[in-house]
Amino acid sequence: MSEPLLSVRGLSVRFLMPRGRHVAAVNDVSFDLAAGECLALVGESGCGKSVLASALLGLLPGNARTRGRALLGDGPDRLDLLTAGETVLARTVRGRRAGLIPQSPAAHLTPVRTVRSHLEETVRALKRPPPRALRAAAEAAAERAAFPADHLDRHPHQLSGGLAQRAATALALVGDAPLLIADEPTTGLDRDLVDRTVGELRRHADEGHALLVITHDLAAAERIADRVAVMYAGRLVELARAASFFGARGPRHPYAAGLLDALPERAFTPIRGLPPELDDLPAGCAFAPRCDRATDRCATLPALGGGVACHHALESADA
Ligand SMILES: Nc1ncnc2c1ncn2[C@@H]1O[C@H](COP(=O)(O)OP(=O)(O)OP(=O)(O)O)[C@@H](O)[C@H]1O
Ligand code: SF4
Ligand SMILES: [Mg+2]
């Protein structure tokens, strides 16, 4: 793999809560992402995927505390996203070096402004075109994300989920940032739009951008990703090449295998039980209460050695 564009090491995020409690939303996460590569981050609801994305873009609320490193770029431009500070992130990173398609696009658009006004403001800030070229540049940005020109003068509440998603995509692409994070880009879309979005995001990676796609949609992950990162209770439990994870080799972590087995087109068998509360994580493997392979050894936390964090990882024939 070429030099990573993004190198995350030991990233942890805690939320400080009343009465001295804390929520351990992201725990010691490390991964690299190269230009031209798509990494899909998958895992059940509440496992910390969006918090991880927010940490990388400096968008966490005030009660969050981060640890670790997240180095973006190379050479003199290299920057640690976790220590960069709000002024640097706002002026030089968000939109320019790292774009985000947020999980709830409509919630990120200002309700009283039209899509055109959002796009013109973003184009003005990131591209500084001459004033007479602004309107055309905003329309070109909309077209790039297949947002229909005849809906540009609508307000966010007048958009369907799919169109709000397109508007958010158009805004995220304006700055042509080398890193794009897409948080659930296919949720709520009909099949055609899912196909289109998957195709566009894959092209975006093929054009040389680094792409982190956060998704529940394992079928979309299979079509779009070069590698898959599986998250459970804030930890990465498997990091694998997509071809091997979804192919004959199969996943190696029992939780990852369970996620695939839950798919209707596979065994359609849900994983029993529920994920743990993130304010009360066990010292050992957090998946143990749900795991058929658990033994006494699992009371010790398994490291992500060789791409899988499990004391009894599945062999190919088991998967
Ligand atoms: N500001 C906050 N204060 C306390 N806990 C928070 C805060 N924001 C998020 N959390 C908790 O962090 C955990 C991870 O949330 P996150 O939104 O990252 O999950 P997710 O994996 O993106 O889920 P989904 O797939 O549903 O989007 C959840 O338990 C959530 O309740
Ligand atoms: S470490 Fe143990 S409990 Fe955790 S997934 Fe592996 S076998 Fe199951
Ligand atoms: Mg989320």
Note the main attributes of this structure:
319 residues, alpha/beta, six-stranded mixed β-sheet, four-stranded antiparallel β-sheet, 10 helices, 10 strands, binds iron/sulfur cluster, binds magnesium ion
Written account of the structure:
The chain is an alpha/beta fold. It has ten helices and ten strands. The chain has a six-stranded mixed β-sheet, with helices on both faces. A four-stranded antiparallel β-sheet has the order 2-1-4-5, covered by helices on one side. Residues 49-50, 103, 183 line the site of magnesium ion.
Chain-wise SSE layout:
Elements: E1 4-16, E2 22-34, E3 38-42, H1 49-56, E4 64-72, E5 79-80, H2 86-93, E6 98-101, H3 105-108, H4 115-127, H5 134-144, H6 161-173, E7 179-183, H7 191-206, E8 210-214, H8 218-224, E9 227-232, E10 235-241, H9 242-246, H10 254-261
Helix pairs in contact: 4-5, 5-6
The chain binds adenosine-5'-triphosphate (ATP), iron/sulfur cluster and magnesium ion (MG).
